[in-house]
Amino acid sequence: MVNQHLIDIKQKALKDFHAAKNSQELYQFKVQYLGKTGALTEAMKMMATLPKEEKPLFGKQVNEVKAELETAYTGVEATLQRAEIDAKMLNEKLDLTLSVNAHEMGHEHPIYKVTNEIFSIMARLGYSLRTGPLIEKDYYNFEALNIPPDHPARDMQDTFFVDETHVLRTHTSPIQIHSLENEKPPLRVIGTGPVFRVDSDISHLPNFHQIEGMCVDKKISMADLKGTISFFVREFFGPGLKTRFRPSFFPFTEPSAEVDCSCPICKSKGCSLCKQTGWIEIGGCGLINPKVFESAKVPYPEWQGFAFGFGVERMAIIKYGVDDIRHFPKNDVRFLKQFSQN
Asked: Taking the mean position of all CA atoms in its chain, how far away is CA 91?
């Protein structure tokens, strides 16, 4: 025999469900009848007062009423929600005659802009892009580039050590080794990405970006290197600029040179950027050291090559006349707006 109290709860709940004016009101009815403190939950407490033989039947009836109410609730909810959506669609209309508020468009960050411009120039010479890990093995960051543990060149780069065998890469030159190990020459590679050094002042950042170029082929000479860099300087800074190469030292190139270009800001007349000299240093270069080829198991002198590296921030400073490298990572809108039309 069906419990009359359960019948009363079901009939009253069904009546209230169908009388609900909106989904919010319907939900309140659900809480009233099916919630943790609702009428049906309270009715289940009656089981404790029933004889043992009547408890199974009462429990079954409670579950049947609950299932019926939940099915009814779902059906009414779907009907109300459809009605509410239809009403919303009728009342909300888009006025296409209203004027649109102008939104200022974003633009490329100068570092991203300079990097892409360098890529574009070098791609015309047959160079293709490579990247590498930011956390680099000590072997690839130093040893494979002819910088063993006791080499004084390690003092030239204040390094962030991750552990005993890994560092935050101090330059993009490890990309050279990865390319030589994984690809067969001839190669024309341009690599880029963030690098890290313990340094910070008006002209240095602990995190900056580099561009690394490498060409490996038969019978490569300093003439090929000088021609490539001179072409790049004219394309990047403008026609008429001159380049000069000063003897220098890098463990991974031999011979090595520092590269200067005539100041694009003052046209070699002398200014604060070039310190009144008319020349600005832009990077380092040289013929790849035979020991680097040996580390990568590339036969030398069958294959020869040159490499060069530029700091992207430095290239942007020279190109745009920026007075402080620390402007670049701040992302101050007032600073970045200046490059929207460049």
From this structure: 43
Q: Does CATH number 3.30.930.10 belong to domain 110-339?
A: yes
- CA pair distance 55, 76, nearest whole angstrom: 32
Q: Which residues of 145-159 are buried (b: 16+ CB within 10 A; e: fewer)?
A: bbbeeeeeebeebeb
Residue pair 260/241 in contact (Cβ under 8 Å)? The answer is no
Kindly state the tokens that stand for 16: 């209230």
Tell me if 195 sits within 8 A of 173, measured CB to CB.
Answer: no
Residue 273 burial by Cβ neighbours in a 10 Å radius (0-12, 13-18, 19+): middle
- Please give the backbone phi and psi of residue 151, each rounded to the nearest 5 degrees, phi first: -75, 135
Task: Give 112-152 pLDDT, tens digit per residue.
Answer: 889 999 999 999 999 999 989 999 998 999 999 988 887 76
CA distance 160 to 167: 6
What per-residue confidence (pLDDT) applies to 155?
A: 66
At residue 136, the pLDDT reads 92
Cis peptide preceding 301, ω within 30 of 0: yes
Residues 255, 290: Cα–Cα separation, whole Å = 11
